[in-house]
Write a structure and sequence with these properties.
The chain has 25 helices and no strands. By secondary structure, it is mainly alpha-helical. The longest helix is centred in the first third of the chain and has 17 residues.
Length: 422
């Protein structure tokens, strides 16, 4: 059998344990816990806690807390893990260690590498949720304390992990300072990604039908951030721009069915979030918005005879919004004026143009093929009227002639790949 580490002898110093031993401990617990004698589990737990209390360096600390989190999942006799850890690690000077420990608990419950049944995972998840009130109290206390960028990132990622667990403590999330913290830190370059993770987890919480106020709050807060999003785009701040875009589109996608089936003016405002993302100059950011349009098309396709869908289509909203999308995408797929050769198949623009083609082919029916074709031809006529533009652009696409463009029928999306001048 595999020799798992036991409780240290009295002369063992946790600070002298090599990092390789920590990594080995994790691997052995993860893969061979069931070979450990039943009466040794508590000694192993005590050993890990002692080492965690003594270690401050990030890498070994992370390895040790992962090992202890795995032990929580495996050790059925340990029924109060959260409360026990709060006792052991609850001192103010250990706040970062406790944050790291709490972050890993929900993550390891979901870790597919652990050799436990789904039933056991469910029981451990229930244990964590049942003891989560003190965890959220810890989060709230940490919100008002001065944090380094690294520690704040860890706190935000920890909050995100616990939000995914759900439970009663998320019921009042709309009133929680945690939400305000996440929106505040979304604008911090060093913390935007972690803040976005909190907000994406909050969107998951908002899927609960009882969380209508949270959904409305998330949408309203995102709409107020549109001017800042535009500023970041002008400043070429890609990291924060991407974080904003992820949150905007996730909030819109979460309510996409309601946009169609329970249309209100507030819900129609969600189109502004997605269309503003489509205005971003970076193609990687624009791609984030594509899934919203696929989801919207799916809802209208699945229930074409539903009265709500018929009313939504008859309102002209899908056509109006979709034509705005097409206009923005056409601007993005233009070949730069100084391009002298055909696009490289490995270029971002080449890939983006194909993704646009797929998007319009699969979702363009929301506006209607004839409507889109008329719109495209109108734009083409404007371009042809600009003689200087034509002289500059047509040599680039000589093999993709005007006659080919006009031969399009209902396959409107082919236009997007056959006419790089647009």
């Amino acid at each position: 059998s595999t020799d798992l580490p036991q409780a240290p002898h009295h002369n063992t110093s946790p600070t002298t344990v090599p990092q390789e031993a920590h990594a080995s401990t994790i691997a052995q617990i993860k893969l061979h816990f069931h070979e450990l004698p039943a009466d040794s589990a508590e000694g192993l737990r005590a050993s890990l806690v002692q080492h965690i209390l003594a270690v401050s360096a990030r890498a070994p600390l992370t390895q040790l807390v992962l090992a202890l989190a795995d032990l929580v999942v495996y050790m059925e006799a340990w029924t109060t893990p959260v409360n026990d850890l709060l006792v052991h690690l609850g001192k103010p000077e250990l706040a970062h260690t406790l944050t790291e420990m709490l972050r890993r608990l929900p993550e390891e419950v979901a870790n597919a590498e652990l050799r436990v049944s789904d039933e056991r995972r469910s029981r451990v998840r229930d244990l964590l949720v049942a003891q989560s009130e003190a965890v959220y109290a810890f989060f709230t206390a940490q919100c008002s304390r001065q944090q380094t960028d690294e520690n704040m990132n860890d706190l935000l990622m920890c909050i995100s992990s616990w939000l995914v667990l759900g439970g009663p403590c998320t019921h009042n999330l709309a009133d929680s300072p945690l939400l305000g913290l996440a929106f505040e830190r979304l604008d911090c370059a060093e913390q935007c990604d972690a803040a976005a993770e909190v907000l994406l987890s909050a969107v998951q919480v908002a899927q609960d039908p009882a969380q209508a106020r949270l959904r409305a709050l998330l949408a309203a807060r995102c709409l107020t951030l549109l001017p800042r999003f535009a500023e970041l785009a002008k400043a070429d701040d890609l990291d924060r721009g991407r974080a904003y875009a992820l949150v905007f589109c996730e909030v819109a996608e979460a309510d996409v069915e309601s946009i169609v089936l329970r249309t209100t003016q507030d819900r129609l405002q969600l189109f502004n979030l997605v269309l503003n993302v489509c205005d971003h100059p970076e193609l990687d950011v624009v791609r984030i918005a594509f899934r919203f349009w696929y989801e919207l098309a799916q809802v209208t396709w699945d229930q074409p005879e539903a009265n709500a869908v018929k009313e939504f289509v008859a309102s002209g909203v899908p056509e109006h919004m979709y034509l705005q999308l097409v206009k923005k995408l056409l601007r993005h797929i233009q070949i730069p004026a100084d391009t002298a050769t055909i696009l490289n198949e490995k270029s971002d623009l080449y890939d983006f143009r194909h993704r646009v083609t797929d998007l319009v082919r699969e979702t363009g029916y929301m506006a209607g093929s004839v409507v889109i074709l008329r719109h495209l031809i109108d734009m083409l006529q404007v371009l042809l009227a600009d003689r200087e533009h034509c002289i500059r652009q047509w040599p680039v696409c000589a093999s993709e002639s005007l006659s080919h463009l006009l031969s399009l029928s209902l396959a409107i999306s082919r236009y997007l790949s056959l006419s790089p001048s647009l």
